[in-house]
UniProtKB/TrEMBL annotation:
Keyword Oxidoreductase among record annotations: yes
Name of this protein: Glyoxylate/hydroxypyruvate reductase A
UniProt KW keywords: NAD, Oxidoreductase, Pyruvate
Native organism: Loktanella salsilacus
Keyword check for Zinc: no
Length: 310
């Protein structure tokens, strides 16, 4: 029997137990899934940072730690974690992120807020929104989520430029990389979607200098991570009109403090880190596939590069 330890918050067990058992059966894996295997017997760990395992030292026979989350910034620096770490790439998570990003981009693109706030019996002079083809959007981060969101926006007609660390080629997107690429990607953008991981290299990537490159009145959608944005610079850019609106799902400190200026800003929408989440049914299949690979001696999927931090 392959001993698989489930280490996440208690409520997650109720969500994941049945889908994991189904996925193991479907993959023909003889797995013993439990929340309390002895460390030396544990071959795989299904892991979330809010679960009981914090020290990986005793898990000497563990072949892979399989994160349930896409973001790994809270575990990647754990010095006791010497086992390989996989992050979550899940079709359900990706679909949820596409829906969130497309929804908020369309809302800002169509100027919906003005109509929602203007239901007051006054028939105003109509301002037609431009067509998507005339609204360049930039997506920072072209991984599992950024590439999928960029392609969904491109399918709606937006000219989409994406930026990543390594140079990519993705159908329908203009792909850039490197420092010059970032400047080009942001210059004249009317909307920016942040889907970078939180690493030392991405901290405050949206700052006074980079925000100044955008088309005045541009909107920001950040479902990536809070530290990608220099908050003081964003508030200043909102104040000057350089940024027209922002949808923020993630923050340097979560939960966002009740007196944070983002809550009361009329052109900021705060969502409480709900852009998307791992969906047990599809995620269980990814976990089963990685165990199948481990048992067959094949390379694992979605391994984290510890040095790069994601
Ligand atoms: P991936 O690891 O698949 O993609 C990350 C992308 O960012 C890659 O394209 C990578 O480049 C790029 N990148 C990383 N560092 C740099 C850098 N220094 N300069 C330029 N590009 C860089 O991650 P996902 O797409 O799966 O997820 C992205 C993030 O979304 C997660 O890290 C997490 O923080 C966030 N997230 C938020 C959720 C929410 O509900 N709010 C839910 C899930 C995820 P390259 O391709 O060259 O490696």
């Amino acid at each position: 029997m392959i001993k698989v330890l489930f280490s996440a918050r208690p409520a997650a067990w109720d969500e994941y137990e049945a889908p994991l058992r189904r996925a193991f059966d479907a993959a023909g894996l003889d797995c013993d899934l439990s929340r309390d295997h002895a460390p030396q017997d544990t071959r795989y760990i299904v892991f979330a940072p809010n679960g009981p395992v914090k020290d990986f030292t005793p898990y000497v026979n563990t072949r892979l730690v399989m994160g349930l989350w896409a973001g790994v910034e809270t575990v990647v620096g754990n010095t006791t974690l010497t086992q390989p770490l996989a992050r979550m790439v899940d079709d359900g998570l990706t679909r949820g992120m596409i829906e969130y990003v497309v929804g908020h981009v369309m809302r800002h693109h169509l100027g919906m807020d003005a109509h929602l706030a203007g239901q007051d019996g006054v028939w105003r002079d109509t301002v037609y929104p431009p067509l998507a083809k005339d609204r360049p959007i930039t997506v920072l981060g072209l991984g599992a989520l950024g590439a999928a969101c960029g392609q969904a926006l491109a399918a709606l007609g937006f000219p989409v430029t994406g930026w990543s660390r390594s140079q990519k080629q993705i159908d329908g997107l203009t792909c850039l990389s490197g420092d010059d690429g970032l400047t080009t990607a942001l210059s004249g953008a009317q909307g920016v979607v942040l889907l970078l991981p939180q690493t030392p290299a991405t901290d405050s990537i949206l700052n006074a200098r980079s925000l100044a490159l955008l088309e005045p009145g541009a909107f920001i959608v950040n479902p990536g991570r809070g530290p990608l944005i220099d908050d003081a610079a964003l508030l200043a850019a909102l104040g000057s009109g350089q940024v027209g609106a922002a949808t923020l799902d993630v923050f340097r400190k979560e939960p966002l403090a009740a007196d944070d200026p983002y809550w009361s800003h009329p052109r900021v929408t705060v969502t409480p880190h709900i852009a998307s989440t791992t969906r047990p049914d599809t995620a269980a299949q990814v976990i089963a596939e990685n165990i199948r690979r481990g048992e067959a001696g094949l390379p694992f999927l979605h391994l984290v590069d510890r040095k790069a931090g994601y």
